[in-house]
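User: Hello! I'm new to structural biology and keep hearing that structure can be predicted from sequence alone. Could you demonstrate with Tick transposon? Please show me the input and the output so I can see what each looks like.

Assistant: Of course. The first part below is the input, the amino acid sequence of Tick transposon. The second part is the output, the predicted structure written as tokens.
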Amino acid sequence: MYKITNNLLDINPNQYLMPGHSQIRSNHPHKYRQISTSHNYYKYSFFPRTIAQWNRLPSNVFAHNSLDTFMGALQDINLTIAPFRHLQ
């Protein structure tokens, strides 16, 4: 998701991702609107699953300006980075 958000992949984020609703209590401004689905086969596919994980990240993770430091920040907050491995 980091690579898509930061235009490091040839995927137009505007085609697949909608900015999340701005909330005062939001923990970071990089949230995306969760994709609603009624089928498990789509619910657990890349975008719905990854958006849910992405939206739960703390704001300090987004202070990093490279993929390496972003991945390091994920490790620092003790997240399981296995779901993010495909982004490397």
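User: So the tokens describe the shape?

Assistant: Right, they're a compact way of writing down the 3D structure. Reading them back into a model, for example: Residues 6 and 13 are 9 Å apart (CA to CA).
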